[in-house]
Amino acid sequence: MWEDRLMTSLTPEGLWSIPRVGAPRAVEDRLLVPVTTYTTDDRATTTLWRVDTEDGTEARRFATGEISGPVVSPDRSAIAYLKTLGEHRQVHVQPLDGGEGRPVGDLPLGAVGVAWVPDGRLVALATLWSDAPRLEDTRSHERRPHLDVQTTENAVYQYWDSWLDHVYHPVVIDPEDGSVLDLTPDATRFWSWPATDDPITDLDVSPDGAMLAFCADDSEPPHRELSWSLFLVPLAGGAPTRLDTQRDGHSHRPRFTSDGSGIVYGYQSEPDYYASPTRLMLYDIATGEHRELMGEWDRSPSGWIFANEKTLLFIAEDEGRSRLWQLNIAGGSPEALTSDGWVSDPTVSPDGTIHVLAHDIAAPPEVHRVADGTHRRLSRFTAEALDGTHLGEIRELFVPGADGDPIQTWLVDPPGSSPDQPLPLVHMLHGGPHGVSGDAWHWRWNAQALAAAGYRVALVNFHGSTGWGDDFATSIHGAWGDRPMRDVEAVTDHLIDAGVAEESRMALTGGSYGGYLVAWITSQTGRYSCAVAHAAVTDLPGMYASDITYGRARAYGAEIWDDRAAVERWSPSTQAGGYSTPTLVIHGQKDRRVPATQGLELYGVLVAKGVPARLLVYPQENHWILSRANSIHWYDEVIAWLGRWL
Fold first, then answer.
1. Are 432 and 466 in contact (CB under 8 A)?
2. Sign of CA dihedral 578, 582, 588, 593
3. DSSP assignment, residue 603?
């Protein structure tokens, strides 16, 4: 019977056959929607589709290739985007009424984003060498190919999978003659790093086209304490002025008000805590006053845009969901416009209609229209790939966890199974630690793909998760393994007691901090039949080799040189005597967020102890497994390991 169900359930190959729909952009009565597909030889192609906003059935190709970051011109006559040309991504412009895209403004190392100026010019975020931070110097800069060495005296010198040898400059491009004006010549500031963020979201052009607001790091070398700050610079050229000089913390995503009198931006007050709640601020350009917009509201907004002169739209996580909210910047409290699922990337049509990208655990991303407190699917790019595929049912439950706090858990059942049927249990533990297992479709850790193999998958939002307020998130600081383990164990006990989990067939899986929890829990108990530890933090002192060491004292409770015992108290490596669980250890060799030595140490200890273990190392992957072939192999290995021990 299972074999019949598996024939129509989601497989790793099937997962990669699903088109990946990107953020919509409103253009009059149409939307421009990027959709990416992958070939079996790992080639990605992104197509921009023009979609009718009435019913979504009218979809026509607009542009195709290695395209990213499409933005519509202010007069809605053209679109700009980045497209690979030679070795780098260059800015292209394409008329909306037809014609081909053409490159504008030759940038020697390409760009990482583009935006429009009201007069039809463009602002691009150009890539330059950090030791030659001028366009002309970058163009002729020699990289000394006979040497294979990288040097630094900075505290921050690598990020994710890259050595930080590039900087980014906002440049103004005239699409008519291709001329380029560098607005910050000689600057060596860090911007948001494109490995995980979109740096172009940290700039905005004033409605009159005279000024550029941007956020970038203002720390001095060796950058021990980063400081993302708010700046204003004339588009005609001139020195940038910092606007938030009176405080520490991080500013990001500036957005001019429609009349140009103010700038709305996000502010995080705790610079050494990456999940410090974001507060929406309004800067008055005339008076220099910074005013907080939502007071004591305990959720953290992101992705804000103006819907009209006074109304701000933004996204915020809330109890395992990502909702769309609106706020009157003149005063008042935020109002939720959506309730269920996971929404992002709002865009507003000229008539005020709102569209978002939306998905949930049982449905991959598609464009949805927001109305009457909910969102309705508009596009159907994924329908053909999912035709005939059965996905598992989703349930939400709350279980008393550590200190009696209610802990949300999503359960994903195998397709066709009964909710009361006892089944092997697989925990899928999220990373962060300040992240969340949301009602969201996940390409790299897809619960449906594991449930399809016959497992009941549990996604626990343990202490430290975001979307329940800052107190819940910070409750794990200085004791990473304490409350989260108690939460996971409480959910396990509940599912066993309820008769829906087979006690003799249970597994733990997780990546990054989720991998840490796998390593920690298996050092404390042997109740699980097997485990999968991907990019797992296993040795807390060894994490000083990570790309960012700022904030370790807050996370661990102390710096290693001040109180080594406090740091090692919650380090799995110090509890290795408890390891007995068969464990699949996975790591990307280019991972600099959790250095590969962390996984290798775990595997080495396991095999030295005689504990059954298997090691997967992907030489070309970083913290995430991104290529199609490697991802399918990853899923196959994980499912095979679970099948071997469950």
1. yes
2. negative
3. H
3-state secondary structure 379-439: CCCCHHHHCCCECCCEEEEEEECHHHCEEEEEEECCCCCCCCCCEEEEEEECCCCCCCCCC
SS3 568: helix
- Write the pLDDT tens digit of every residue in 353-399: 999 999 999 999 999 999 888 899 999 999 999 999 999 999 999 99
What does the block give as tokens for 539? 């040795």
- Judged by phi (left if over 0) then psi (alpha if -120 to 50, else beta), residue 421 lies in beta
pLDDT (tens digit, 9 = 90+) per residue, 440-464? 999 999 999 999 999 999 999 999 9
3-state secondary structure of 4: helix
Q: Which of 296, 235, 226 is nearest to 260 (CA)?
A: 235
DSSP state, residue 505:
E
Q: Report d(CA 461, CA 319) in Å as an integer.
A: 9
Q: How many CA atoms lie within 13 A of 2 on its CB side?
A: 7
Q: Which amino acid is at 503?
A: E
Are β-strands 211-217 and 111-116 bridged in parallel, bridged antiparallel, or unpaired?
unpaired
Both tokens of 464, joined, read 């430290």
Whole-number mean pLDDT of the chain?
94
- Chain centre to alpha carbon of residue 366: 18
Of 465, 341, 454, 323, nearest to 396 by C-alpha is: 341
Joined tokens for residue 357: 């990208």
Query: In this structure, are residues 210 and 194 in contact, taking their beta carbons and an 8 Å threshold?
Result: no
Phi (first) and psi of residue 46, to 5 degrees: -110, 125
Cα(417)–Cα(245) distance, rounded to whole angstroms?
59
Give the pLDDT confidence of 29-53 residue by residue, as tens digits.
Answer: 889 999 999 998 889 999 999 998 8
Q: Rounded CA gap, 413 and 258, in Å?
A: 48
Return d(Cα 171, Cα 519) in angstroms, integer. Answer: 47
Domains detected in the chain: 21-139+158-385 (2.120.10.30), 390-645 (3.40.50.1820)
If pLDDT is split at 50, 70 and 90, which confidence band does 256 have?
very high
CB contact set of 197 (below 8 Å; sequence gap of 6+): none
Strands (E) located in 150-292: 158-159, 162-163, 166-173, 180-182, 203-205, 211-217, 228-234, 241-242, 250-256, 262-268, 279-284, 290-292
Q: What is the 3-state secondary structure (H, E, C) of 67-94?
A: EEEEEECCCCCEEEEEEEECCEEEEEEE
